[in-house]
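Question thread 4412

I'm putting together a teaching handout and wanted feedback from people who do this every day. The idea is simple: show students a protein as raw sequence, then show them the structure tokens that encode its fold, then repeat with a second protein so they can compare. Below is the first pair exactly as I plan to print it.
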Amino acid sequence: MLKKKADDVGPKPTPPKPSPPKNDDEEDGALVSDGSDLISDPDTIGTIVFPEDLEITEPVIDTPPVDLPDIPIIVPPTDDPTDSPDDPTSPPEEPEVQQRFLWCLDNGHGKFTKGKRSPKFEDGKRFFEYEFNRDIVKRIMEQLDEKGIKYFNVVPEVDTDNFLKGRVDRANGHQSDIPKLFVSIHANAARSESIDHWANPPAKGAETWYYTGSNRGRKLAAIFQKHMVNYTGMVNRGLKSTRSLYVIKNTTMTAVLTENGFYNHKKEAAELRKDAVRQLIADAHVAAILEVEKNGL
């Protein structure tokens, strides 16, 4: 029997009080924190969502890999000045934004989370997921501040672990006079011999997770996935649903988890280190948030 999400069935329960930050690997035990921990083979592809078609069928995550085109991560060229409006002093029109939701932005993992880093690059450095996640959220928040969109930074701390129960308690307990939505930001990893070895075979691309049976979750995930593919050119790994991801299972609001590229795919991880690529990922999340603020959910 499916768990009934509070956002889909009616009044929300009284939220628990926030918990203080602490290291919680032992407490959480086998609780699943992200997509790379959930499935044995992250090469599997969920429902492929094309930007022009948001009619989503129920996803399947245990199908064989689909042969998708290898689309490089690229930075779109600047606009052609010949296409600019007649009055160059006129700023571009911003989409009309209503304050519909408060966005709970979740920095996946912390500095003390075991693993969650790439093998060493030639320069001796590694990709650290906790740093990437916080950088993306920071870039998102800067734009939301400019646009007047309300948000809550769920885990601003760096020196913490997965902190799963605490982050859920914080999001559920945060007071808001408008409905809340939860977005957890991550980078992905495929199976490998160890954290010191690049994945073989490698997996790449972006995917978005939602709670199985939540129609609002599926719709929200589709919006984020659409913009991620459009903005970054990453391989579209589609939507995936589960009842096991802790943060999207236990939040009392509609929740999604975005996996933004693979940090143990050597070429993709090198791209994820670039400032321009990170900005595109943040821009994609902001575009999804603005679409939901404009059109509702």
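The second pair follows. I'd like the answer to focus on this one:
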Amino acid sequence: MSEGKVALITGVTGQDGSYLSELLLSKGYEVYGLVRRTSQPTLGRSLINHLNSNENFHLINGDLTDQASIDNAFKEVQPDEFYNLGAQSFVPESWRSPLMTADVTGMGSLRCLEALKRNKPDCRYYQAGSSEQFGEVREIPQTEMTPFHPRSPYGCAKVFAFEITRNYRESYGLYACTGILFNHESPRRGLEFVTRKVTMTAARIAAGFDEYLSIGNVDAKRDWGYAGDYVEMQWRMLQQDEPDDYVIATGETHSVKEFIDLAFFHVGMELTWEGEGVDRIAKDQNGVVRVRTNPKFFRPAEVELLIGKYDKAEATLGWKPSITFTGLVQMMVDSDVALVAEAKERGYAPPMPPE
């Protein structure tokens, strides 16, 4: 069914972009990834370096802040499917750079829709949404009908992207839809994100490189799934007769504290917590402090609880998650333990999460 199709992907160098590229290539697609031109290769592209030898995988220059470059990409590639995964997606950075976040994450989606409408109106469009759109949730669990109440510039930008995608679908008859993805992680997650920061720091502590993890609000609860599962849903959304929007989640919620406990237990440390709020610590079985909360990592406006209901996706798309929460944490820890061990064996410092 998919042989001969052409796909264009923004955000191709990221976690989802790399998994989606692999999936589409396995289905016989010609895949083009839109990347910003840089004077030197970026480390982020290491996630797709293994795809460069595939004759059906190509990179094309473009930028979500530049309308002309997106128009040119559509004219050159003439895609059958377009996946807009590109964004400034790190929530803490959205407070430091709110205008840039709005431009890339919000207006970037509008530029993509305009380019599609002008140059390839029969192309099917997927917009990456986020559970951060729900923010201060109005109901539990969250569904496609739950009102949005974003609590960060990133969440606000994603709400705009969602609404403008729906507007272009209804106004111009485009096949355009949004997947409202709850948190999805993997060993390819960026080191700045809390889950990967936890697993990499646990691996570094176990190997003797660090003493403790410095973290923000450990009581925040999220619905965490596996990114490899979620990109298949993105593809399935564009294979339906009619476009629609879907919540993609696991239906379970877990605290950051639970994530930390599982990760440290997997490297042989059983934690005991003391204190509360910004003054919490966790000690291992030997009484050594291994986790400290730090006020600088707390959000100005916290999103306390996210949990999605994916009934519609299961009924319509035949989709459901395959990896459990425990399995996800263990997968990520095992990957980071291997990375740290390789670095140690070769005599260089292992990756360190940014502060």
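Top answer:
Good format. For the second protein you could add a caption like this: The chain has a mean pLDDT of 94. The longest strand covers residues 124-130.
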